[in-house]
Amino acid sequence: MARSVTARSAHRRPATTKLRALVGWLFIIPALSFYAVFVLRPIALTFQYSLYEWDGIGPSTWVGTANYGKVFTDPDLFDSLINAFKLIVFFSAVPVVLGLAIAATIRRITESRLALVARTVLFLPQVIPLVAAGIAWSWLLASTGVINQLLSLIGLGGVTRAWLGDFATALPAVGMIGAWVLLGLCTLLLLAGMSKIDPALYEAARLDGAGPWREFVSITVPSLRQEIAVCVTVTVIAALASFDIIYISTQGGPGNTTMVPGLQIFYLAFSEREVGTASALAMVLMLLVIACALPIQWFAKDGNR
């Protein structure tokens, strides 16, 4: 009797497993369908368009990989890729480094009302639409804006200029706007990570005579490997795919000083009617984003082994 019950239950297990797998697929299929229609299909069409010379309306002409060659040989297109990598310094390095310092400071004063105010103020740029932020910073950085007025008040009138209209300062100025936008997000992510660190580690370090800097370097930073990886990934993608802030503040100028791939793709596709070249640049940008994001994720996973 016992053997027959065991045999029946063993017979039912594969059927139950198959049923669970079927139910699981029924839950997944709607999401996969949306992903295929709104992500995979556009990527496939973009790759297809990149192999043709097309104005978006008339007949297309097969050119193979010529559009990809143009991306790397045309100075304007290639410089836009270089500008995107330059923005990584401002969009990624500045928010992550400052975010670590600010989060560590807030953690030490977490019981005070100042910590709550600081978190709220720092996160405000994430709530403000990027278009509004771009317009506001365009006013602040104008030749008669608040920044130049403050510099003149403290006796630094000689360094005032139209920060977004000067060839030497336009890209750093745009970069600082991006750093301001992303600083709050990085700070809150890192602060959340710090809240999970065991306080006993800090107490043991203090008993061994470690100061605040040694605690920060030896305990805080290593414990935030995952959070730092998330911050770097998000900010690097924001730098490479930047569009709205630059479109509102400089529109790629002066000249092509602040031209980035996202803006270049927009101009090529909708102003110059070079859909094939725009698609090739979009594919190159997607591959660059993947090439930058994957090593960061692998680095974070290796640190948890």
UniProtKB/TrEMBL annotation:
Entry's transmembrane regions: 21-44, 84-106, 167-192, 228-249, 280-300
Coiled coil segments of this chain: none
Domain of life: Bacteria
Main location: membrane
Keywords: Cell membrane, Membrane, Transmembrane, Transmembrane helix, Transport
Domain spans labelled ABC transmembrane type-1: 81-296
Cellular compartments per GO CC: plasma membrane
Subcellular location field: Cell membrane
Annotated membrane topology: Multi-pass membrane protein
Biological processes per GO annotation: transmembrane transport
InterPro entries cross-referenced by the UniProt entry: ABC_transporter_permease, MetI-like, MetI-like_sf
Family: Belongs to the binding-protein-dependent transport system permease family.
Descriptive protein name: Raffinose/stachyose/melibiose transport system permease protein
